[in-house]
Input
Amino acid sequence: MSFASLGLSEAIVRAVTERGYTTPTPIQAQAIPAVLSGGDLLAGAQTGTGKTAGFVLPILQRLSQEPRPAAAHGRAPIRALVLTPTRELAAQVEESVREYGKHLHLHSMVMFGGVNINPQMQKLRGQVDILVATPGRLLDHVQQKTVDLAHIEILVLDEADRMLDMGFIRDIKKILALLPKKRQNLLFSATFSDEIKALADGLLDKPALIEVARRNATADTVAQKVYPVDRDKKRQLLTHLIQEKQWFQVLVFTRTKHGANRLAEQLSKDGISAMAIHGNKSQAARTRALAEFKTGKLQVLVATDIAARGIDITELPHVVNYELPNVPEDYVHRIGRTGRAGCEGEAVSLVCVDEHKFLADIERLIKRKLPREVVPGFEPDPNARPEPIMLRSQEHQQRGRGHGQSAPRATGQPGRASGKPQAGKPALGGNRGGAATGAKPAGPKPAAMHRSGGRNR
Ligand code: AMP
Output
């Protein structure tokens, strides 16, 4: 089956093909014709099934086929509203709208709380055809009369069960009351509690019913990518990727505790809320960091392998290997944190010339070559020469010897894990360095938790 055979236009099929999809997933095969027909839909589908394209593609098709209604109050109205429980999901859905709609002339906008409302107000003054929003911030705009929902033709409640779990039912009801009576409603939910059924009963009119099974989440379905970069540009590249791609809940791995602290500090300076967790942090500090990370308040958690093993976080959208592990099995453990059903999870590795041997070991272990992508502006210097890398086991010795004298590289070298390795002892292929956990360094105390007043507050 092809996307074209589902009744999608050439411009949409082209965008999907450019994204690399050749065949619709089961939910897409069922949802796309149902939504195109104009009726309501109740879909049981989890993240990872391809549900986003399942509603975004037919919405784009419907809106691009029908003429844009006449302008009211000087601007054409918003025509489709997608409500999501979290900022991350809102950002992802809107990114999909932009990507799949790139050959069309529709305009989309994402709106969520925790960021300055003024740029959103500004954007709402322009043309917005498709609005992707979290309920709370949408109601803030309603209150300020900066958004008009009176002409919505299509409403999507995405991950409705999570929205109810998060206590959004009253907000949703307030929003529903502002929408025109005649509209198309699409409800996506992974589970069907009585509460969801009640919501669906009140909202949907003779809906088409679709249910699909969860796609398998194996390491094979995690999108893995290598970004080649110079060692001293890694931090800038990480900031660039997080900001550009609007990544939330990013688990970043460093090889050393010191490296974790320093990276969290630097990201905070870049306006990205980040904290480090590792064996030297108190349990209370780790618990707090984890709790904030899980709720999405903290955008980035920087961890060492050992610290990450003891914590219960899985199904993350983004895992970043800021530094590749010297033990290839650690790579598999790290990326096992992601891969939320299907291709949803993304594991990227920032790899400098010093780490080519580690990368080769990893690729040998996983029996596949990882795709490389050079980010414009971060092209690695082709003449760069590898330098030895300090490992966890050596960090302890190093810091115990006083990092001021023996680690001149530790300052002014963003992106470098830590200080200079011991002369004559290249660190490649060293042991696993379990000594690092729980050991108190004799050097300076690790930096305190850092949070920023950045964009994710
Ligand atoms: P979703 O369930 O919408 O979050 O999508 C899960 C993942 O599947 C995303 O990474 C999509 O990019 C990917 N995906 C969606 N549709 C397809 C398709 N037809 N073929 C391959 N991958 C897809």
Notes: The longest strand covers residues 184-189. The radius of gyration is 24 Å. The pocket of adenosine monophosphate is lined by residues 21, 23-25, 28, 47-53, 342-344 (CB under 6 Å).
